[in-house]
Amino acid sequence: MSDDFLLPQPPLMSPVRARDLSRLYMGFSQELRRLGLTAEANRAERDSQWWLNYAIALSQIPPGAVDQTD
Fold first, then answer.
1. What is the pTM of this model?
2. Who's near 56: CB < 8 A, 6+ residues apart?
3. Which of 40, 53, 62, 69 has a C-alpha 20 to 30 A away from that of 11?
4. Is 23 helix (H, G, I), strand (E, B) or coil?
5. What is the distance between the alpha carbons of residues 55 and 46, in angstroms, rounded to a whole number?
C-alpha cells in the first residue's frame, strides 16, 4: 500500500490535555455560532467531538504501555 494516503497520527498526550483541547474547540464553536458562522461552527464542533473521543481512548491506555522512542 502506498504511503500517499496515510493520515497523520495525532500526538500522544495526556487524556486531560486532549479533553482540554475538546473544550477549547467547543468554546470556539459556540463563539462562531454566535457570530453567525454556522459552517465553521459545525466544523469546530466536529473537531471538539474528535478530541473528546481521543481523550476517552487515551484514558484507556495503561501507564507505561506505550513505548516512548526519543
1. 0.76
2. 15
3. 40
4. helix
5. 14
Cα angle: 12, vertex 7, 57; to 5 degrees: 40
CB atoms within 10 A of CB 21: 19
Cα(2)–Cα(22) distance, integer angstroms: 32
Q: Which residue has the cell 495503561?
A: 62
Q: Tell me the domain boundaries of the chain.
A: 14-59
Residues 6+ apart with CB under 8 A from 61: none
Question: What's the chain's length in residues?
Answer: 70
pLDDT greater than 50 at residue 70: no
Residue 36 has pLDDT above 60, yes or no: yes
Can you read off the three cell numbers belonging to residue 44? 469546530
